């Protein structure tokens, strides 16, 4: 399949994606912002939350499942608390608004929370974290998602594989950006095993009845296993409480699936906690961070060929490489995005 | 060994532990507070962080490893940011001070962060979360710990099995309290397998060289595996950044082991982020929380004999049972605590 990929300059790809959103009825500023979030995700090596979402978002706009002209309502409940009703906006438009609110309040009082209700798929989390870090701010963020996993010990899906991201700026080099969903392995890896006729490792998934399985077909018919068992399942619930329940939005089974109901508002929720790391630690924040990250990367590796990295380092290396040398993606996807530009 | 346990009233046990701390030179208020944190941990079913720590803390006080008369310095860096230098205080004394600061600031502006540097073993996290929830506040807290785990892909320990706790109040019943360390399994479970001559499950641990193992002896000589591989390892680092680096304290390899160096200040750090959940969501917070938790507990269970629970529910049931019916602990431990009271 490698022959079917093309490499295109980042700016060009971003412009094509933005044009596609504009052609679908998205105002130009929102179109550019949405394209940029997805493009940065793609370049960081998160293609499942990258350019493939451009045609998907546009298909949902066409079905009335996303509101291109949202009237977002921002309610400051306290000096460091904001709630945003996103009016079914494009997820990145809602997410960037939440990020901006959280950063602005955190600059005033040191730390702040912004929660977004009635939103859509927010895209990859790492690009939001990267923006905060480039502003010198730490960020904790998360989103709920449509129901795919059972709570621990359960035999029916009641919660999403809700991702959590924790990021701290490193003024001297790549930032610390941990961006993780709650399953041991991504669904895409199980789909690949099915295609290749391979078994999946123990611990990745359970059958529809909750029994462990190494059969990818039974796994796809069943549920992804949460990392650490009850721990990952509990974290998925904690993220939903912060992202869904607290801002007054939908949670758990009330989140509609945009795959099954592409024309319905999914009612997704997100949260952003921004923290002024440098004001907190003071002038030696930068050297301390450098010291911390060097202790990690200087750890003797288990495999001498694979140096130890910290979260976000490989993603930011990929991003820098893609900004310089172009973004490689399936040729058919590029053509689809180009075609959507009208 | 069950014959060697005794059951004692919670109040009596708390008073005995407090008397032991007073006899070791701890001021009476601090002694009562420290005893209470450990007692609540014991009653919640976390005996590794419960009464067994009373003689351990006192042994370290005797060796000069804990300061019974700390001059804690509190520095409000912003309306919602505080840093506390705990002056090597007893961990629960420092931790409760941090909790109080975070709660007070969060009541003013909605959310607040307190970080504690130069502290000791903070005890179990769940009792702090329980106090916040009883005050109607959500709490995210964590602590760093002495070095026991490698970063992902590493073959040498560089970080602690740093626990994270996320709690949200449930006004109508047991609160949501997720309290988790980052390893797949606790070290105690591997020690038990060794005693019983049993193999441990795949995925619990790696050897000293980083290779997977099911041999409990090789596991104890090696390292606990982090849940979700790079995810759990990354979370342990994120907790250390929030608990150690941000408050200006020690992190990673700078945390001294209180087992190997019981007379040295371990320089442990903790963080508390308090959030005014009810001010954020408004008057329907309680019903929404009830709804959320009922969706979880109403999930069809994989094993009909084991209903689905949410994080914190079994712990708070155990706590209520122990408050009513007494605390069961090893007879030898009770005698040791009694003896330490002078």
Your description of this structure?
- Two copies of one chain form a homodimer.
- Chain A has about 350 residues and is of the alpha+beta class.
- Chain A has three domains: about 1-65 and about 320-340, Hypothetical Oxidoreductase Yiak, Chain: A, domain 1; about 75-180 and about 230-280, Ribosomal Protein S8, Chain: A, domain 1; about 185-225, Hypothetical oxidoreductase yiak, domain 3 (Wheat Germ Agglutinin (Isolectin 2), domain 1, 2-Layer Sandwich), CATH 3.30.60.
- Chain A contains twelve helices and twelve strands.
- Chain A has a seven-stranded mixed sheet, sandwiched between helices. The first copy, chain A, has a three-stranded antiparallel sheet with strand order 9-8-10.
- In chain A, helix 4 links the parallel strand 3 and strand 4 (about 110-120).
- In chain A, helix 1 (about 10-25) packs across helix 12.
- Chain A is globular, with a radius of gyration of 20 Å.
- The mean pLDDT of chain A is about 95.
- Chains A and B meet through strand 4, strand 7, helix 8, helix 9 and helix 10 of A and strand 4, strand 7, helix 8, helix 9 and helix 10 of B.
Describe this structure in a few short sentences.
Chain A has helices spanning 10-23, 28-43, 53-62, 91-109, 126-134, 187-196, 216-221, 230-245, 277-281, 285-297, 313-325, 331-340, and strands spanning 5-8, 73-78, 81-85, 111-119, 138-143, 164-168, 176-180, 205-206, 212-213, 223-224, 268-275, 327-330.
Key features of this structure:
homodimer; 342 residues; alpha+beta; Hypothetical Oxidoreductase Yiak, Chain: A, domain 1; Ribosomal Protein S8, Chain: A, domain 1; Wheat Germ Agglutinin (Isolectin 2), domain 1; 3 domains; three-stranded antiparallel beta sheet; 41% helix; globular
